[in-house]
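Quick start: what a row looks like.
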Amino acid sequence: MNWWQKLKKNPLARLGALLLLIFYVSVIAADFVAPYDPYTSQPDGSLLPPTRIYWRNQQTGEFIGPHVYPTTQGPTSLETGDRELIVEEQKISPIRLFVQGSEYKLFWLIPANLHLFGTIGEGKINILGTDEQARDQFSRLVYGGRISLSIGLVGIAISFPLGLLVGGISGYFGGWVDAILMRIVEVLMTIPGIYLLVALAAVLPPGLTSAQRFLLIVVITSFIGWAGLARVIRGQVLSIKELEFVQAARAMGAKPLYIIVRHVLPQTVTYVIISATLAIPSFIVAESVLSLIGLGIQQPDPSWGNLLSIATNASILVLQPWLIWPPALLIILTVLAFNLLGDGLRDALDPRSLQR
């Protein structure tokens, strides 16, 4: 367990693991963490800025704790283009933890309709504001993470077994099998990934649901993602197959496929773990790019990519920046966290460091 001790002593790896733990727990328990239904619009609540939290009664000045007031958008000024916020200061809505909601039910473990935080009364707490459809941006961000964070895990679950198997077979058998498989790998590696994604996504039937698009994006990214792994695994297998325990298994009459799966590929587990943590961000970025240009997950279903797609609207970028920065920051932090964890695993699992 020396590698585990080294990993725990790496502060950057711990930071990456902590960020990923927070993100994944939050999106798994999105029904509990998000205060509102991500598909429900609030009356007269389009493009509201982040809700201001008050501590004192705005009419009497008395300290009453954290609370908000019902806020709606007023008419747009013809002179300045600004929209007046109408705050009903006579209706106090206290902010509370573990609030019973009314929109939908949680799926497991946590009592139905219970949310991490919320308000009591008519006021809404939109900590990241609302979008153009008057939907709570924070709730959509949390629910959108389910797609953006899961696509990487599903992607490596498809591409890595394929890359391991092809690389293992190529390296173990050699000869014409190795030559044919490596030529296929080289062809796939020459395909520019993002252009292939855009080209294939653009010809998808327009009637596909977000779930179907999600699966197609995963399949497409996995199809072009296994080639590099196969090439590296092939190189490792070329040396592993000459070791004594592999030769002994062959002498005992074990079948080649059994030897590859049971004896050869497990020796590559260190590289596979490190490579997986470093490959997941590429799947997340691919989904984000496709959704950003309108070829990925479609509205009203949220993902971090299509939440970021409104950045193409210059007026939103200037007047409602709170809609742009949160999804962009989450994508950046997730990619950074996986890279920090991957670097930490690489240092901890390095055979040279394990011998010290």
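That is the whole record. The radius of gyration is 26 Å. The chain has 15 helices and six strands.
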